[in-house]
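Quick one before lunch.
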Amino acid sequence: MTNKDTYRFQVNLSGMINILSNHLYSNPRVFLREVMQNGVDAVTARTQIEPDHTGHIHIELTGDITNRTLIIEDNGIGLTEEDIHEFLAQIGQSSKRGEAAFTGETSFIGRFGIGLLSCFMVSDEIVMVTRSAKGGPTLEWRGQPDGTYSIRKLDTELSPGTKVYLRCKPGSEMYFDPEYLAEGLYYYGALLPYPITLQYGEQSKVINDQRPVWLHEPELARSHRDEVLDFGERLMGERFKDFIPLRTSSGRTGGIAFVLPHSVNLNAKRSHQVYLKSMLVSDKAENILPDWAFFVKCLIWTDELQPTASREHFYEDEKLQQVREELGDSIRSELMRMADYDSDRLQHIIQLHVLSMKALATEDEQFYRIIHRWLPFETTFGRRTLGEMLKEHDTIYFTLTLDEYRQITHVAAAQALLVVNGGYIYDAELMSALPLVNDAVSTNRLMPEDVSLSFVDLTPDERRAYYELTRTADTALQRFRCQIQLKRFKPSELPALFTLSKESSELRSLEAAKEVSTDTLSSILGSLGSAMEQSAYSTLYLNLDNPVVSKIFMPGNEAMMVVAVEMLYVNALMMGHYPMNRQELATLNQGILRFIELGLSAGGSGEAR
Ligand SMILES: Nc1ncnc2c1ncn2[C@@H]1O[C@H](COP(=O)(O)OP(=O)(O)OP(=O)(O)O)[C@@H](O)[C@H]1O
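Model of the adenosine-5'-triphosphate complex:
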């Protein structure tokens, strides 16, 4: 070795094939996509120099189950010996990139110069017999997975084009099964522009026999409803009932958004089937539609997006962003069109996919304005659409959280107060924004304290009569930092209502943390908590209209009253789904035992009598 020697990297081809098959491609079946794509690209290249050329791709399966060979033949541009050395023998080299490099526009599907290697996943040798449309002899190229290849001139003079021979390697038999093959070819090539025929024995069939008119004019899909739904079922394996045509302003991306016939989870990942230059490149494209559009599954064809090397995703670039927005616009405008011309259909979609619709309404005021009357919400009167609510109310109250809603739901319902539960995702946001899209309505956030204000106060006489008892009850609940208010309210079946201030809610969480933390942490939490204690009060409203409460507050029941009020307090906590601390749990246990004991002794004395 001298001071400076230059060496060439060696590529370990079998290592590369392993990487491709195990890490780049999701399934060895993609070799079908790669060979079909090479055939289509070769035909495209030939039509660039011979515009009248009629391309086709013929695929033949030969041999019996133990010895199958697949032959993929195209009448495309073919390869000269020079092309072979340059493009076939150099991994990463492609005749299809031209000046455009990896990310530019090209009329070809391929660009990376690695696709052919995927054939080694199913075959131990790739044999290519080719003759260039530019002239020259027929050549046979044999490539091996160890990185060696040979070329030989053949005496026969074939017409220009290429035949690729793949002999099934042990373990790959399923990929050479005639039915599996037909399915795979259809899966990737259903929309390809040149006829693809598959021949097996005597049987020969055209794989992409349907070229629906609406593929290039998605708007026409509306007048071919059944055909579109059949097509969707065949390609996506699911029967849909409705769809929305898609198209970007450039006209270079279009498709069909099939409306899912069932509700979907907000977090469900929705993947779409995307065809790049008519070849299926991905059935898992997730980033091609806006987030709110999780109620559709799409077939999308494009010739303007850049695939990644696995060809199963697209580069997240400005173009993709624009396409995503415009596809979203297609869906949005179709829904808005339905509001005018097909409102039953829109209402059906809203009922099934209310979360998607609400997500979009939070993003788009105009959309919200048009569809708001059909959006349903949970209210103290049951599930109601905004349209139904607006008929009777010009002010709509809503809570911000589920907890607040739980606290007031009984009382609000009993007082015929319509309150929307804003605890579900998007609902509080939509309620706040409602007056912006409908100026005939105002919305107000309701706090549990606001509802309690509509309680009826005791008369001055009653207040005097109950003063001492209320004070005793209040003192009993001091240790829980809860104050008592004796009121009358509806419904009379409701003995107590518990409201929690923001501070006392925070203090409860702090205390819950303190109970399960280490000494040091617990003392820090303790000092934090003591700072809040002053303001952290909850209130237990007791309903004097309730027969049990009025009995508790009868003179002579003082001893039982404290236990009963404590029990009403812990019961109110349970009703509001608040976690209880140790002290409250102990109170609950003691209270239950006390009542059992009382019941037993009352029963016992009954028997004795
Ligand atoms: N059927 C064919 N007819 C003519 N040329 C072919 C054919 N198949 C492959 N080639 C040549 O071999 C080159 C390498 O093919 P390969 O499939 O590996 O990559 P690619 O198609 O260029 O890019 P990608 O990796 O994106 O598919 C091609 O660029 C093309 O020049």
